[in-house]
Amino acid sequence: MTLELQGIGVSRGIAIGKAHILFHNQPDVREYLVPVFSVEQEVDRLLNAIEQAREQLKAIRNHIPANAPTDVSSFIDTHLLMLNDSSLTTVPIEMIRTRHCNAEWAMQLQRDALINVFNEMDDPYLKTRQDDIDHVVNRIHRILADEDVMGDEILDDRLTGHIIIAEDLTPADTVLMQHQGIAAFVTEHGGATSHTTILARSLGIPAIIGIESVRRYIQDNELLIIDGETGTLIAGADEATIAEYQQRLISFEQHIASLSRYKSQPTKTKDDKAIKLLANAELPDDISTISNAGAEGIGLYRTEFLYMNRTSPPEEEEQLAAYRDVVESMNNSPVTIRTFDLGADKTVDGGRSTGPTVTNPALGLRAIRLCLKQPNMFRTQLRAILRASAYGKIKIMFPMISSQQELLQAKFLLTRCKQELKNEGLAYDPHIEVGVMIEIPASAVCAEIFAKQVDFLSIGTNDLIQYTLAIDRIDDHVNYLYDPLHPAVLRLIHATLEAGKKHNIPVSMCGEMAGDPRYTRLLLAMGLEHFSMHPNALLEIKQVINETDLTQLPRNTLQIMNMADPFDADILLEKINSPIHKH
Fold first, then answer.
1. φ, ψ for residue 515 (rounded to 5)?
2. Torsions phi, psi of 323, nearest 5?
3. Which residue range forms the structural domain that includes residue 340?
4. Is residue 582 domain-resident?
5. Which alpha helices (DSSP H) does 120-168 contain, by range?
6. Domain limit, last residue, from 146, 169, 193
7. Of 101, 371, 417, 510, which residue is the catalytic one?
8. Across 11-25, 69-83, 283-297, 448-462, which has the greatest mean pLDDT?
9. In this structure, are 128 and 67 located in the same domain?
10. I need a labelling partner for 82 at 20 to 30 A (CA). Which of 239, 363, 423, 446 fits?
11. Residues 514, 518, 524, 526, CA torsion sign
């Protein structure tokens, strides 16, 4: 009997293979009192476990192929850095000494405290960093319990061609399994922006998340079909279904292989409309990937990584060095730097609020609000960005602007920083372009007001969709409501594009919608000319653009903004996307 389960597709591709069900037994962590004379021995026990965890991760990193994407090693490095972070290691040691508790319990208490902080975060990407804490702490717990952690990590061919079914996977799991030749993976939990799912996309592993209790329905070694785009898992398929998906798999592999020819081609539609393709970046290691993908610049450079996992904000010179490295690596291609998008609950200790716990941090002190509340920290970043602009083409972008007053305050501080640098004789670009993120409904509705006062707008669809529809896209209970085709979302995007056109300023899109080929033609029809996305999506988006004739799109394309029935919207989107125009 055929069984079809639906989850969230997070990494495209088709896979057909036998199931390998993975059970990571969670250590049973209980508290017990350590005698005074054994406290230091317990501290040494924890330190030894941390050192073993460090050595294990180094061993995994050493098995990463030389030609693997830079994302792969950077995720393992993130876990190694966490093992050096005092908040994760020194604090539990102090707990052992003051509370006389066992090492497992001290790690668990600190894990819970850190997870609570991350749970209050509103940014989906940063919120899912709690997964990394869990992965690192679980590794330490298993070592403390004398479990053979590396037994699950032996590099052999047992998993070749298998589809992994698990509760969740760590980035280390993913790297090892890709090296062992797995065909795909399916997990019960995980976020669309977690390290593991980002890694799956980088490595080209088809992946589905969010199929609750999937291990109850699937048998070990059972033949499965995975569609990483639609999020569909099929078990017990008949021969006709298997043959159909085998053909889809061949077609998909041919399609991916054909994309390389677009790298050297200009980006323009068949009716000669030039389009600019940019890349999103969040770590310095992303730059080589961006260059290899043929991006025309960076449309969103996130700066939050500079502020995380430290006890005080980065100084001006440290930030200057980071921004200068990026802009010089891009060889005069434009780099749009977003000022820090942190919240009072997720910044460094030096900038963290000491007030009461925020009930709803998504609507609290974050992004530009925090920048204006912490002007000294904001000025430090503005000065560093301005100074870096002397070394290449840099643009400044303010996040989560909701009112004209916020924009005027931010621009006033920027003007003051320019004057300071001029007085100090420090070089900067006096004509540096300034833009704002359109990521909440208020800013989209008032886009025309902002368009009069800035050099560009950038639509952040991830937050715009969440705030417009009042849902958290990484919450398993409501993420089915996350709909880029909702008429309210499309109308806000269209209004923003029209505002840019009216005031003759460019409008880009840097959310995930920009890197999803299902929406490319619709966005082109709405007037979007600047796309910014994960570098791995660039060539596929370029193919869709280059094979699109805007004059041949259905005449009622923009009627999709009036379609309240999702079924009707999907039908029209299908007409917009087919047939793919061939050369």
1. -100, 10
2. -70, -35
3. 275-577
4. no
5. 124-127, 130-144
6. 146
7. 510
8. 448-462
9. yes
10. 363
11. negative
CATH number of the domain within which 495 lies: 3.20.20.60
Average pLDDT over residues 189-207: 76
Q: Which residues pair with 343 in a beta bridge?
A: 366
Angle of the 404-424 helix axis to the 375-388 helix axis, nearest 10 = 60
Angle between helices 195-203 and 130-144 (to 10 degrees): 100
Q: Is residue 206 part of a domain?
A: yes
What is the structure's pLDDT at 517? 92
Q: Residue 538 has which token pair?
A: 């660039």
Question: Is there a catalytic annotation at residue 195?
Answer: yes
Question: Exposed/middle/buried for 327, CB within 10 Å: 0-12, 13-18, 19+?
Answer: buried
Task: With CA atoms as reference, report the closest residue to 207 among 13, 400, 4.
Answer: 13
Q: Shortest CA distance to 182 belongs to which of 163, 209, 206, 201?
A: 163
Instruction: Give the confidence band of 360 by pLDDT, cuts at 50, 70, 90.
Output: low
Side chain identity, residue 408: L
d(CA 8, CA 4): 13
Last residue of a domain, one of 258, 287, 308: 258
Q: Note whether 573 and 471 are same-domain residues.
A: yes
Q: Supply the pLDDT for residue 104.
A: 93
**Contact present, 278 and 296 (Cβ < 8 Å):** yes
Look up tokens 């690192």; give the residue.
136
CB 517 within 8 A of CB 578: no
Per DSSP, the three-state class of 322 is helix
Catalytic site residue from 20, 162, 195, 486: 195
pLDDT score, position 80: 87
| Distances, alpha carbon 308 to alpha carbons 53, 337, 370, 460, 545, in Å | 22, 17, 15, 22, 37
Structure confidence by residue, pLDDT tens digits, 208-243:
998 988 998 999 899 999 999 899 999 999 999 999
- What element of type H or E holds 355? none
Residue 510 a catalytic site member: yes
pLDDT at position 350 over 70: no
